[in-house]
Structure formats: C-alpha cells, structure tokens
Amino acid sequence: RAKMSRIEYITPEGLRLDGRRAKEARRIVVTMGSIESADGSALVEQGNTRVLAVVYGPHEPLLRSKAQHDTAIINCEFSLATFSTAERRKRAKGDRRATDTELTISQTFEAAVMTHLYPRSQIDIYIQVLQSDGGNIAVAVNAATLALIDAGIAMKDYAVACTAGSVNGKVILDINHAEESARGPVLTIGTLPRTSDIALAHLVSRVHRDQYAAMQEAAIEGCRAIHTVLRAAVAKHTAKAVNKEAS
C-alpha cells in the first residue's frame, strides 16, 4: 500500500496517468445495431473499457406468474468476459457483485423506460464487459441506453452515467482502472438529462459530505458531455438506417 500511495496520479501540470485533465472524460466510440439476431444492440468503447449491450423484447415473460398487469419487467444480466481483465479468476455462479450490478442497472432503466406501455411483458438487457478498464457500470448503462433505443423501446429519456473519484484530495472524472486501484472513493451517477433526475447513485468507499457533493457535481457534468456524444451517435445511426431503407 505504501508503494501505491507514491504513484503520482495527477502531475503538477494537472495531467493524469493517461494524459487527461481532471474533469476530462475518456474518448467514446459507439457502434449500434451490429447484432442482427437481437432486437437492439450497442457496443460502447469508453477509453479502454468496452461494453456490449444486447436487448430482446418486449416479449411475454418466461415465467407468466411474474407478469405485471400494468407494466413491463426489466430483466438485466451482467457479466465480465473471462478475458476482460488482467486477473484470470473464475467468477462464481450467482456472484454477489454481478447480482448487485444487475439490480442497479434494472432499477435505472425502470426509471428511464416507459414500462407502462408494455404491460404483461418483459424486456431483457444482456450486458457483457469485453474489456475492463474502469467505470464498468457507467459504460454498461450508456451501452444499454443505446441498445434500447436501437430496439425501438419507448423511453422517457436517455439514461446516461459517468463516474467521479478522488485522488490526493482532487476530484477526477470518468476514472480508469489504475485510478480505481488507488482505493479512493468512486461515485457512479446515472442521470435522466432532460429533467436532471438522478436515476443511479453508487458509491464505493466512504467519503465526506462536502467531497461527495463535489464528486456528484463533476459526475453530473460528465453525464451532460456523454449525453451529447450518445445523442450524436443515435442521430448518425438513424440517418444511416433511413438512407439504407431509401436505397
């Protein structure tokens, strides 16, 4: 641990290990609709983190007893590819962390999807982290939003997520794995940009109230920037689909 604390996460010039400034998000690359067998899909690369989200539905619930007469069930399955991290440890079936992540993501989309339009039905979101380099939950939310849009699922708003952390007392945005390894606090915030509602707040490690407020403010600002990128990706994908149909 003593060795870890000597790592200079931010240089005197204000640059991080990967060359970004404190409040700078990672570069985002989006591919939508590449899985033809699915109703919707999206691959989001945020820095070196790569997440694939695939959506099926709405369809009749697999267990009819679980059907809700006035709303849809959001079912989420989250997994890390065995090759996604440097650690090659096997993940136990029913992994507590994965189960918690699935619940967190499901609840986020219960707030974002117009579930009342799909009574007695189920919407499945399958998420796989292909490459893990920090902010897995946030990138998963962003990928799932685009996959749902690709599937034509009606949504109140985009669900957009971003992380913020704190190293050496300084708030940093959209943290990578090396920065997560500093074992400082990490906050993942998911917003519905139109109303500025917070649909997701996930904190790892304790933090002082003032520091939490600063991290939340940074994460919300990051969500705004990421929202712009996601909207542009959807517009590009939609235009491509329209041109394809026209030809």
Overview of the structural elements:
There is one protein chain. With 247 residues, the chain is α+β, with helices and mostly antiparallel strands. 32% of the residues lie in helices and 28% in strands. Strands 1-2-3-5-4 form a 5-stranded mixed β-sheet. The longest helix has 38 residues. The radius of gyration is 18 Å and the shape is globular.
Number of helices: 5
Report the span from N to C terminus.
Answer: 60 Å
Category from helices, strands and their pairing: alpha+beta
**Which range does the strand content fall in?**
25-35%
Summarize the main sheet.
5 strands, mixed
Residue stretches low in confidence (pLDDT < 50, at least 5 long) are 1-5
Rg computed from alpha carbons, rounded to a whole number of angstroms: 18 Å
Query: What is the typical, i.e. mean, pLDDT?
Result: 91
| Helix percent band | 25-40%
Side by side, the strands of the main sheet go 1-2-3-5-4
- Compressed to H and E, one letter per element, the order equals HEEEEHEHEEHEEH
Number of beta strands: 9
Shape: globular
Give the SSE map.
Elements: H1 2-5, E1 28-32, E2 40-46, E3 49-59, E4 72-80, H2 96-112, E5 121-131, H3 136-150, E6 160-167, E7 170-173, H4 177-180, E8 186-192, E9 197-204, H5 209-246
Parallel strand pairs: 4-5
Antiparallel strand pairs: 1-2, 2-3, 3-5, 6-7, 6-8, 8-9
Q: What keyword list fits this structure?
A:
alpha+beta; 32% helix; 5 helices; 247 residues; disordered N terminus; five-stranded mixed sheet; globular
